[in-house]
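Proteins fold reproducibly. Look at a sample protein:
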Amino acid sequence: MWISSIVHVRKKNGQIRVCVDFKNLNNACPKDDFPSSIIELMINSTTDHKVLSFMDGSSGYNQIRMPPMDEDLMAFLTSKGIYCYEVMPFGLKNEAPHTKGL
């Protein structure tokens, strides 16, 4: 099991945001080199389709289920115990390449 720490970040409005610090996990993971798409190619490829679906990138991380074998890597420590994410959290090195590949 990999255990990350909790950090508190002050937002511009003064409120506190609780975040998980995945720096050590990100340093230990190899980079997933999924190629970035060119937007014009993506738009042109949709012209013959009758049904399109869209994913909200700002909240998409909490919609993607983590593979059960990776849930232990997403563990974080609080004063109440150790918890694991079951969905993709924000802050992982390979989150953007992974969501582009969906």
